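Late entry, written up from scratch paper. The run itself happened at the end of the previous shift, but nothing got recorded in the book at the time, so transcribing now.
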Amino acid sequence: MHGPAWPAWLLVALCAATGAYCLLRMRSGVEEQRRAAGGEALMGFGMAAMAVPATVFSPPGWAWPLYAAVFGAAALRAVWAARASPHHLHHLVGTGAMVYMSLTMALSPTAHHHAHAGTGVPLVTGALLLYFTGYVLLSGARLVPVAATDGTGVGTAPGSRAAVRWGDRPELARACRLSMGIGMVAMLLAM
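Output as recorded:
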């Protein structure tokens, strides 16, 4: 990524922390969560690697096609998994965005963000920005706490429910997806 170094380092930290938490979620007792967490860990670490400032490390030319191949394989896996769960359609869009950004970097690694000056936002970038901005807004709204009911209509405090392992908590998984969506918006804006 090009631009100031400090926002890129914040993005690297956010994506790497999200990837690390997703690796921990892979220890869940729920098979579907383990599968989703693996794909999300790949996305988090891949986004962190792509966000490293170009002034610190410029990957060799062969790295971008390699990224595209890895995320292309992840996209094929997401297509296969989407048959069982519509959530994997979001994984498909995310991996497709990573393939798109990797190919864009491979085609023009040094001047890709200057190439669009004065011509507006390319169609694919704009569509991905719209999707991920909507995803971030919707995911953020879903994280707003709502008083739970115990079946009798009486509200219960959020901390009073049965103990759930921290790696299996759905709100933490949603927060990870939200942070990766925010990271994707930032990366697409830097294109």
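The chain has six helices and two strands.
(Scratch paper discarded after transcription.)
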